[in-house]
Write the structure tokens for this entry.
Amino acid sequence: MDIGSVNYLPYEDFVDVFGNVVEKCPLITAAVWSRRPFSSLADLEASINDFIDALPESGKEGILRVHPDLTGRDLQSGTLTRESREEQVQAGLDTLTTAEVSRMARLNTEYKDHFGFPFVICARMNNKATILRQLEERLRNERTIERACAIDEVKKICHLRLQGLVVPETSNKL
Ligand SMILES: NC(=O)N[C@H]1NC(=O)NC1=O
């Protein structure tokens, strides 16, 4: 789909197509629809990011809280959204050894107990080794810094999901 077609989508279709660009947050998509027309894919993405940035800190934490844990176990259980499952598989999280699954589960719990929201990272820009390393390192962050870092990761995930849904303008001209 190109950006011109996006601008013609009725509200329901827009939410159907873009409702999960921010994991389990169709409300963001619904709100951003009223900012049409978008001049480009980057403009649509900027509208989503502006909406997120304008939220109070409790709203940002809410976005983080609905993210699934990155663990082998959730991947096996079949409860993830299609997007999240595909991203976790691409990062190799379906190939964790039993020891790695336990380590990730332990660190995830420690992280969540400490910050009150789950560890979020753009899986497709990482692999299982860098995800485990980041989880360990970010656990040591000060809370405000960590919340901002996690929201940046949400935006990276959203960026890649949007790329999969809208043809960038440069490709249109080919
Ligand atoms: N917890 C977490 O980071 N989950 C997200 N990361 C990602 O790339 N997809 C997700 O669902």
Summary: The pocket of 1-[(4S)-2,5-dioxoimidazolidin-4-yl]urea is lined by residues 23, 67-70, 84, 87, 118-124, 157 (CB under 6 Å).
